[in-house]
Design brief:
The chain has about 375 residues and is an alpha+beta fold. It folds into two domains: about 15-35 and about 145-375, Aminoglycoside 3'-phosphotransferase, Chain: A, domain 2; about 40-85 and about 90-140, 2-Layer Sandwich (Phosphorylase Kinase, domain 1). The chain is built from twelve helices and nine strands. The chain has helices spanning about 15-20, 20-35, 40-50, 90-105, 155-170, 210-230, 270-275, 290-300, 305-330, 335-340, 345-355, 360-375, and strands at about 55-60, 65-75, 80-85, 125, 135-140, 235, 245-250, 250-260, 265-270. The strands form three sheets. A five-stranded antiparallel sheet has the order 1-2-3-5-4, with helices on both faces. The chain has a two-stranded antiparallel sheet with strand order 6-9. The longest helix has 28 residues, at about 305-330.
Length: about 375
Amino acid sequence: MAITAGAPIRPEIRFGEIMMTQSNVAKSYKNMTTSVSPTALAEIDLLVNQHWGLHSNSSRISCERDELFLISSKQGERFILRLSNPADDPTVIDLQVSALEWIDSHAPDLPLPGVVPLTNGSLVISVEAGENPPRTACLTRFLEGPALARTPTTTRQLHNVGVSLAKLGLALKDFHHPGAIRELAWNIQQAGSCRAMLPDASTTVDEPRWNLVRQGLDNFVENVLGKLEKVRHQVIHADYNPHNILMNPNDTDVVSGILDFGDMVYTALVNDVAIAASYQTAGPNPLSKVAELVGAYHSVLPLEDEEINLLYDLIITRLCVAVAITEFRARRYPENREYILKNTGVAWEGLERLSAIRREDATACLRNTCRQSEGAI
């Protein structure tokens, strides 16, 4: 199944109500706790040869929930093979593949990893590999360039990152897919479900920063969610973090690749901006880089007044979600702790620094930045 455009998502769907049901909290919890057993590389090489006709050598790439492999063919080409997590519905994988095809036809200038068809013409396949239940496999082309996280930050670079995200949002504006309606703890709109992942308050008495997480999630549920449900919604990338953005090796200010569409979801459009901005709080002023990225985004895809009003709280919420999920998974899977917590230090620091700024001051800063980028709001 490959669905691109179809009937729009029903506007009466209320994500707050979905989020607060016990069954959906349980599903989000399951998605964060289902692990996979490592698949032998020889088995991966056999699978790639059998279904894609490639003679290759594979190597494992660290991944939080799925299995990822770098596939090097004997012809010198490189690909990425993803085996989905058993907890993921196959329609979610079809969502990613369909979105990549859609974006390629609507914004061909965006640097995306093209999907490689199987020998039978299909784009995905269900496979049994290793000691795991059947999973969905997909092969994409390898993109060159260092990750944004490993390059020096410049104003021009932040501008280009913001612009590329806005172009991606515009490309996905009319894209619809049933797999986008799902329970996903990483979705800011379902942040309330993350409260079940927090350590008991009695165990963090000596770590007062956990109170910032509890306060942030409580503020979201009580004061933000209702307003968020009323702003623009569409399918978004939902994980525009510095490890998913590649930069041109000859000019690290230029975006050369956009990776990992695994968190795609139908949610508020402004959440995409909040997620990207949450990783840009370093520096003397925690809002300076955030404002640069937001202003660049706004110059291409203007944010509405209420979206700007919510942005500070949404960035705080995303940082709370990042801390809650990664710390929870690190406790559960200590053997993968280093990979799981790769961005958590940044999230803790950003949360502490942004929480020290008054909401009114932060919003005024972001509003002024957007005004300057377009002339007026």
